[in-house]
Amino acid sequence: MCKEGEHNLEKIGLILQERRKEQGYSLEEMSVKTKLSTVQLSAIEEGNIQFFKDDLSYLSYFVRYYANALGIDYNELRNELDDTINAYTDSITVSQIKKQDEITSNVQKKSKKTKVKSKPTSKGRKKMDLQTIAMLLFAIAILALLFFGGYKLLSGSLNVKDPIEDPGSTIVVPKEDPKEESKEDEKKPETEKPKEPEKVKLEVAQKSIEGSSVVYEVKNWVKDEKATFEFEFHNASWTSFTEDGQQLANPAAKIFNAGEKASVIFNVVEGKSLEATFGYMNGNEIKLNGEKVELDASIATLPDYATITFKFIGGAN
């Protein structure tokens, strides 16, 4: 039997599927646009919420990406999707409570059986225990007397002094002449530390912006020098990173919570590109080699999906 949450997701999936077919896109083409796998897209369209049971917190982001890519207003689906996820979560919680109650009941039954089987100790055993304790106390008393007598004999022999006293010995360490040390220090020539070359500041300029996607060109770089991108999250966002068209496994795509950071480091060459896809952009920041990237205001405060691409062209001579 299908649960209520599954029925609701089926409705949402049907809306997405119909729009995709109207626009003439295949699942493979939508996978390229959304960065989601065809299996994930198919599960959304079929309303298969069980498929996302281990990644339930990501489901709303997946549906948002898919809806935005098809030109559907996600806010029209948001409430129904939230109700779907909550209903499914509640059903899982109830089943877990039932299982826990069954386990507790079985443990209690087993413990009762164990108590019934146990019997009190016999009077005969108590008598034997008293006799054994008395014998042990007697043996301990004898051992204590023997130990005390041996200790007195040993202490008497140890107190005898050695008739020959050790006169002791002292070692005289000659003091070093401080004048000689100062002369040696004067002879050593001072070596100047080589100055580190100043790093060239990269130039970041906006090339184009279209909807929620913006492209920046990075110039004045030196070939094979490292470029360090730092992403600081002030609002939670599901985010993925793509280098030269390949999605990165480190950092992997996931939900980054407020206060978390992610970094991408690589050697720069002509044509190198990095794309960051945010499920929720508003307030999140990007730094390049420690310098904050001044994002377009419409992107920096966007409370929605955004794609930011950096392309390295025109290196320094």
TrEMBL record:
Q: Where is this region: Disordered?
A: 165-198
Which InterPro entries does this chain map to? Bact_Cytoskel_RodZ, Cro/C1-type_HTH, Lambda_DNA-bd_dom_sf
Claim: rRNA processing is one of the keywords in the record? no
- Which keywords fit this entry according to its UniProt record? Membrane, Transmembrane, Transmembrane helix
- Residue spans of biased composition, Basic and acidic residues class: 174-198
Q: Does the keyword Transmembrane apply?
A: yes
* Gene Ontology molecular function, alphabetical: DNA binding
Residue ranges constituting the HTH cro/C1-type domain according to the UniProt record: 16-77
Spans through the membrane: 133-154
Name of the protein this chain belongs to: HTH cro/C1-type domain-containing protein
